[in-house]
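>> Question from a student workshop board

For tomorrow's exercise we were told to take the sequence and the ligand below, predict the bound structure, and bring the output to class. My setup keeps failing. Could a helper post the expected result so I can at least see what it should look like? The ligand is zinc ion.
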Amino acid sequence: MQQPSLHHTSREPEVCHVCGRRAGGIATGPKGDRWLCVECYPLLEYVRDVRRWDGYELAAIADVDTATGEFAAVHGTDIAAMDTETRQALWRCAIRAHQDGIRRALKEAPF
Ligand SMILES: [Zn+2]
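>> Workshop helper replied:
Here is what the output should look like for this input. Compare the format with yours to find the bug.
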């Protein structure tokens, strides 16, 4: 069975188990499939305890929804029709909105 954190063809690490950025060459976890990015290497000994998104991260999805909705109001909803620059701006918008949403959720906790 294919490990979900590995690229489906190269079998190389692709996504950091902690933050979702591009992973490097260190993996941990019971199956050795929890890859880490360079920034998260210091968390190596704690990663086996990292589970799915927590309540703060899930609450931040509302911020992503708002920000990407505003983006779509300006640039449209047809992602396939967007040029590369616009599509990449959408992804940055979503990622930043999620990060900002986590910060907001932490300030508003408990919710
Ligand atoms: Zn990371």
